[in-house]
Design a protein that fits this description.
- With 805 residues, the protein is an all-alpha fold.
- 73% of the residues lie in helices and 3% in strands.
- The chain contains 40 helices and seven strands.
- A hairpin with a 7-residue loop joins strand 6 and strand 7 (243-246).
- The longest helix has 22 residues, at 19-40.
């Protein structure tokens, strides 16, 4: 777009993205663009001077290295061979992870023969006597820049036909620095001053900035062109925005070293002010010049802005450096809001690392500053941040709530409504992560009230939205349904697209699923999940998990696997380990149910390892239940019993929803072990949970297990009756794999009753449903494995296998 402008809707979207997601999507966009370019025709991408690159750029290059395995893309990376530079990690990554397609070329010093040949070519027709030639070759030490500069030193007084230059006609400096200094000394005073001013601006500079800073009365354009002809500068841009650069960094460093310290400071101050007027978003560069001008107070706001930009780009080491420098250079009369932003930014950067110790130190420093300066709202902010980071990074609930209670006390004393709203939001989160949803709902109600009182619609919507989702998580479904309309209407009034999608996916869709309307829930999730993905919503991972659970119940196994994988991927990208382990466990369960068991060991092990970490516990009910489901499918009964016991004892964000499933799987395990008494107890407990919470979605499987229990106890007629109810309920709710099992077990019951014709008809229906489920699967191995396992489970011969036999 002209001028780099973005439409308002795109700018709003970008501003709403969390930092890790913005970084991920930016990197992916560049990778996608280069992939498309390489597929049109083979592409060579040359990246020079990578030793100057920032951390974000280096991370992008590492991502591009992966593309070389699949695309016609060559990366030519050029950098100084300095292992202390950040860029050196590219060398190590290439050597360790891409050794099969990596070639390292180290440019060593030229040998004597190559140096002599370079000298001969650069001199053209000019000849040096043997003594001078030997001096040049000896002192060059194989450095081509030294040779080039010697030739430049000769060119002003000797033409190509001037003959031979003798040793006594020129003095060869002993070092490159001396040679460059001598080169600058030969310039006239005006040109030398211009080169010095340019060196203060930087290696590259805008011609207009140079003109403004140099305050040059003479022919500036002519002087600059003269420096280009002399090999001091080179042109980089063209009018109307001409820019130039020093031909080599050492030339710039040499010119800079010749500027007096007092003059340097004055010039740096001029450059900074020019950039403030011309390019105010160049905050890092402006701050650098103000610091070198010895004006720390002027540098402070620009260091804060540079830190914010670095965090937004996930250049965390840069962000930490900028924010730390800002606090080091904080003036006594600094804007309190900027002081808050600097501490908050530093804490956020460390939290994203993640580094709880340094994040807490940043917030503790803010707390002390607030106390010393008497700015109590900063104390509230610091305590709120300490509570949030302690909860999310360390899962230390008691300490987190201690910080938050202190924040609340001060906020109430000074009537800090913003701080009080933040307290309630954080307290809600801490309680929700522990499964204390009734308390969370109380905090959400307060957030909504504060937002309404203050006229802050965003805060009000957040409170109403979180109240609805926490009522759902707490199993208070009727209240959630009643409160849904208020939240939805508030979000609709201000066209809050993300909030509306959250409510549809984590509210209305779950309520439909609760009522057994699997197809209706799927339809809502399919419609609104793309919005949450686009905004990279905090709720996106949980919504994909709901999609996976819904698709699994619908028998849409490929969609279920993709949604579990999406929840896992999003969890990794935004730091939600609970979504990672729940996604892995869900995939393990579905794969086991489909009979694909070869890769489950590592998947289950990583899920179990992750769920036992503090931040992995938030979806522990779902994770342990799916791990147990996989174990049951694999016939690992002792392991399934252990996993179900952990699932039953744990308290997490998904306990209310998963508890009936845990009890039903306990009953199934008892039936497999021929323990009808235990099965009866678990089924009665499940029936009570289902009835109390109105979770009709679990009724089909409850009826199947009731039928299995009746069969095991020899109550054939009761078994047929309840299995017919299971068939009806599964068909009505669209739970196709449960329907397959209900039909298979009902066919077995008809066999035992001697009604062989009815049994055959039921198995034919089961076969038809299996074919329908399999027909939606694209992956051939998955489709074949599911058909084989499901046919075997209901006693149906696989027609493909029978035909081949």
């Amino acid at each position: 777009l002209a001028g780099g402008a973005l439409p308002d809707d795109q700018r709003t979207l970008i501003d709403s993205l969390d930092t890790p997601i913005l970084h991920q999507r930016t990197t992916q966009a560049v990778a996608d663009y280069l992939t498309a370019a390489a597929r049109r025709r083979p592409l060579v991408l040359v990246l020079d001077d990578l030793h100057w690159a920032d951390t974000l750029s280096l991370a992008l290059v590492e991502r591009l290295m992966d593309l070389t395995a699949t695309e016609p893309l060559v990366l030519l990376l050029v950098m100084r061979p300095n292992q202390e530079d950040l860029a050196w990690r590219l060398v190590e990554t290439a050597a360790h992870e891409h050794a099969d397609r990596h070639t390292a070329v180290e440019l060593e010093s030229l040998d004597v023969g190559a140096t002599a040949e370079l000298l001969r070519r650069l001199l053209g027709g000019l000849e040096l006597d043997e003594g001078l030639r030997t001096q040049v070759l000896d002192r060059a030490g194989g450095n081509p820049l030294f040779v080039e500069e010697i030739v430049h030193a000769l060119s002003p007084t000797h033409s190509e036909d001037a003959g031979r230059v003798a040793t006594d006609e020129i003095s060869v400096p002993p070092s490159l620095t001396g040679l460059l200094t001598a080169r600058l000394d030969r310039l006239d005073e005006s040109a030398r001053h211009l080169a010095q001013v340019a060196s203060v601006i930087g290696r590259e500079f805008d011609a207009e900035v140079l003109a403004a800073v140099a305050d040059h009365d003479d022919d500036l354009e002519g002087q600059v062109e003269g420096l280009v002809r002399d090999g001091i500068l080179e042109r980089r841009g063209h009018r109307p925005r001409a820019s130039f650069a020093f031909r080599h960094p050492l030339i710039r460093e040499t010119a800079y070293s010749t500027v007096l310290l007092r003059t340097r400071r004055e010039l740096h101050g001029r450059v900074a002010r020019q950039l403030v007027d011309r390019d105010p978003e160049a905050s890092a560069e402006i701050a650098h010049h103000f610091i070198d001008a010895d004006e720390p107070a002027a540098a402070f706001p620009h260091l804060v802005a540079a830190g914010r930009t670095a965090v937004r780009s996930m250049a965390l080491s840069d962000a930490i450096r900028f924010f730390s420098a800002a606090l080091d250079h904080r003036p006594d009369d600094a804007d309190p809001e900027l002081v808050l932003a600097a501490h908050d930014g530093l804490g956020q950067a460390y939290a994203l690392v993640p580094d709880l110790t340094h994040a807490s130190a940043a917030y503790q420093s803010l707390l002390e500053f607030g106390k010393r300066s008497g700015r109590r709202h900063l104390e509230v902010a610091a305590l709120n941040r300490l509570g949030f980071s302690t909860a999310t990074l360390a899962a230390d609930w008691d300490q987190a709530m201690a910080y938050l209670r202190s924040a609340r006390i001060i906020a109430e004393e000074i009537h800090d409504e913003d701080g009080l709203a933040e307290y309630h939001m954080n307290a809600c989160l801490v309680n929700a992560l522990q499964g204390n949803f009734d308390t969370s709902v109380e905090h959400d109600t307060e957030v909504a009230r504060i937002g309404e009182t203050a006229g802050n619609e965003t805060v009000r919507i957040v409170g109403l939205l979180r109240r609805t989702t926490n009522l759902v998580a707490g199993g208070r479904y009727d209240e959630a349904a009643a409160g849904f309309d208020d939240a939805w209407q508030a979000a609709r009034e201000v066209q809050h697209e993300e909030a509306l999608a959250v409510l549809e996916c984590n509210g209305r869709a779950v309520l439909r699923l609760r009522d057994g309307d699997v197809a209706g829930a799927m339809e809502l999730l399919r419609r609104h999940l793309p919005t949450l993905d686009r905004f990279a919503s905090f709720y996106a991972a949980s919504s994909h998990h709901w999609m996976a659970q819904t698709a699994r119940l619908a028998g849409d196994v490929e969609t279920a696997l993709a949604a579990y994988a999406a929840a896992e991927r999003l969890g990794r990208s935004v730091g939600q380990p609970h979504a990672v382990c729940a996604g892995m466990a869900g995939r393990a369960h579905v794969l086991a149910r489909c009979g694909l068991t070869s890769d489950l060991g590592e998947l289950r092990a990583e899920a179990e390892a992750t769920v036992t970490t503090p931040a992995g516990e938030f979806y522990s009910s779902s994770t342990w239940t799916d791990l147990a489901g996989a174990s049951l499918q694999l016939g690992e009964l002792d392991r399934a019993e252990r996993e179900l016991s952990v699932a039953l004892e744990t308290s997490s964000m998904t306990t209310a929803w998963e508890r009936p499933r845990i009890l039903l799987d306990h009953a199934r395990l008892a039936l497999v072990r021929h323990e009808p008494a235990d099965a009866t107890g678990h089924l009665e407990a499940a029936r009570g949970e289902i009835a109390t919470k109105g979770l009709r979605v679990y009724e089909p499987e409850l009826f199947v297990l009731d039928g299995m229990l009746a069969t095991s106890e020899g109550r054939g007629a009761d078994a047929i009756t309840v299995l017919r109810e299971a068939e009806r309920a599964a068909a009505e709710s669209g739970q196709q794999l449960v329907l397959v099992e209900a039909l298979g077990r009902l066919a077995d019951a008809r066999d035992r009753a001697g009604d062989l014709g009815a049994a055959r008809s039921l198995r034919e229906r089961a076969r038809s449903v299996v074919e329908e489920v399999a027909g939606r699967i694209v992956d051939e191995e998955l489709r074949a494995s599911l058909r084989e396992r499901q046919f075997a489970g209901v006693g149906v011969v696989d027609p493909d296998a029978a035909g081949s036999g």
